[in-house]
Q: What sequence folds into this?
């Protein structure tokens, strides 16, 4: 278990084995523990270094504080607006494809 500081954030990482460094990064909803089944085979000839996502809490190190505001730079309202706009754009595109398909079907029926 170790941490290093990068741009004001503490990043958690682990090291297993010796040899060439093999740095593995995580996807969404993953942690260092996601690599547990690969530690033994990957660290035979390599120095396996799994890391947590940038700024992600390591289970058990977080602290919930009542009445405190989140210190991120995300504006939740703007993010919801983007989601709604994306859903509407998808809906309009789907309607356009459906209408185009209906027009093609009508043309094909008139030919036949």
A:
């Amino acid at each position: 278990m170790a941490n290093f500081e990068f741009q004001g954030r503490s990043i958690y990482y682990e090291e297993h084995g010796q040899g060439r460094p093999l740095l593995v990064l995580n996807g969404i909803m993953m942690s260092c523990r996601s690599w547990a089944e690969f530690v033994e085979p990957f660290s035979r000839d390599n120095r396996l270094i799994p890391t947590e996502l940038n700024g992600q809490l390591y289970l058990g190190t977080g602290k919930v504080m009542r009445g405190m505001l989140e210190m991120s730079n995300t504006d939740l309202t703007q993010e919801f607006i983007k989601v709604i706009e994306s859903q509407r754009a998808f809906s309009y595109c789907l309607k356009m494809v459906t209408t185009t398909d209906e027009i093609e079907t009508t043309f094909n029926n008139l030919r036949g």
DSSP finds two helices and four strands in the chain. The chain has a mean pLDDT of 80. The chain has two domains: 1-59, 72-112. The first helix runs from residue 36 to 42.
